[in-house]
């Protein structure tokens, strides 16, 4: 997949990169608004966006939800160490994790732990329950080290 994106990057011009930057900031821009900002007609801007979607540069669109809409979640980062790093162990863990709604993001890491997992704990739930009943029951888990966030700093994305 990496080579696909390297080739994709070489085919993109400055207008494509500007369109991607604008959509990253506001994915609800109309073709007319987008075209006006990059010097194209609305239909030309729309065609560029469709081409970027088909090429895989744009993977999709999503809504950013308020904390209230998400149930005022607390964020916990969990370092997960597996029993081993065999492909079967990692695949079983990753598949089970993908079915875990409390997991917002997960990263395969280098270093002491195998994965860094971002867990969202809704106001009406407890991390102790998630840790005991869900995370520790995932296949291949040997060790969990949890870190609770104090405050979230909003970034550009």
CATH architecture of the largest domain: 2-Layer Sandwich
Q: Tell me, what is the CATH class of the largest domain?
A: Alpha Beta
Spatial extent as radius of gyration? 20 Å
Sketch the major β-sheet: 4 strands, antiparallel
Q: Work out the helicity level.
A: 40-55%
Helix segment tally: 6
Strand percentage = 15-25%
Domain count: 2
Estimate the mean pLDDT confidence: 90
What structural class do the secondary elements suggest? alpha+beta
C-alpha termini separation? 23 Å
Give the CATH topology of the largest domain. Answer: Alpha-Beta Plaits
- Uncertain regions spanning at least 5 consecutive residues: 1-7
Question: CATH homologous superfamily of the largest domain - what is it?
Answer: Lrp/AsnC effector binding domain/regulation of amino acid metabolism (RAM) domain
Oligomer: single chain
Please explain how this structure is put together.
- By secondary structure, the chain is of the alpha+beta class.
- The N terminus is likely disordered.
- It has six helices and four strands.
- It has a four-stranded antiparallel β-sheet with strand order 2-3-1-4.
- Helices cover 41% and strands 19% of the residues.
- It has two domains: 54 residues, Orthogonal Bundle (Arc Repressor Mutant, subunit A), CATH 1.10.10.10; 75 residues, Lrp/AsnC effector binding domain/regulation of amino acid metabolism (RAM) domain (Alpha-Beta Plaits, 2-Layer Sandwich), CATH 3.30.70.
